[in-house]
Amino acid sequence: MTKDKQIEENFSDILSMLKKKVQQKDEEIMRLREENTKLKEKLTEIDPDFVLEETFKRR
């Protein structure tokens, strides 16, 4: 196997690994966005004064 061929295969392997990582991060972002949306919906159902008070307590 020539050196150029090895470099090309290594580059291809690295590229596919990076694509997989990007896809995993994209999936995580989508999951977190959905979770965030659900939490925002739940927060609108709760008394806003209570939420504000709890937020201050945590900080």
Description:
The chain is an all-alpha fold. It has one domain. The protein contains two helices and no strands. The protein has helices at residues 3-45, 48-58. It is rod-shaped, with a radius of gyration of 23 Å.
SSE topology sketch:
Elements: H1 3-45, H2 48-58
Coiled coil: 15-42
Keywords: Coiled coil
Protein name: Transposase
Strand content: under 5%
List the domain count as a whole number: 1
Q: Tell me the major beta sheet.
A: none
Poorly predicted runs: none
The structural class is mainly alpha
Rough outline: rod-shaped
Helix content: over 70%
Indicate the radius of gyration in whole angstroms: 23 Å
Order of helices and strands: HH
SS elements, strand count: 0
What are the main properties of this structure?
single chain, 59 residues, mainly alpha, 2 helices
Write a concise synopsis of the structure shown:
With 59 residues, this protein is mainly α.
